[in-house]
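Why does residue order matter? Because the sequence determines the fold. Keep that principle in mind as you read this record.
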Amino acid sequence: MSADEGQVPGIAGYAEAADSLVDSYESITFEDVYRPVLDLLPKRGLALDIGAGTGRDAAALAVRGFRVHAAEPTAEMRAHARRLHPDHGIVWTDDALPDLARLRAEGLRFDLILMTAVWMHLDEAERERALPNIVHRLAPGGRLFMTVRKGPVPPGRCMFPIPIGPLIAAARTSGLHLLRRCDFPDVLGRHDVSWTLLAFERENRV
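Structure:
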């Protein structure tokens, strides 16, 4: 069974909304979101975009010289991504948190993992399962960038409140060192939505 056939509750509503989400997702650039941590990007290497959506960030990483794997469990989103960004050599995978089963089976380690607006789709138990799987996919010294949405849940979506302090503490326990935290308003101008951007580095040990 593929990830978008019901195994991932957090993606509820995205298949139906995929066509209407494309323009808003693509209207924002990778630089718009990650500008506060661009100086922390590895120069190049192997990158993983988890919950890659329309492929905007995966394509931006490819342009910057990364070899990119993109995991997206919603087939409709993957279809848009391949249409919008066909020339960047991105390896697309039907995979999702909390288990990342297909990527785990491949045994790849990444220099950079990106999670844009993903973490709040996991409930507490799923987050506890997901964090070790993410850390195991990072190479020693690899970096994790993630954005966390705060605000009301859109109709038909599945999201959970994410306390940032406990998230940072759990990451530290799992072997991730916090490099930077940034809080910022919604790039799309929604007054009831805000974001936290976190940059972590995996401890330099296997």
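Confidence is low (pLDDT under 50) at residues 1-6.
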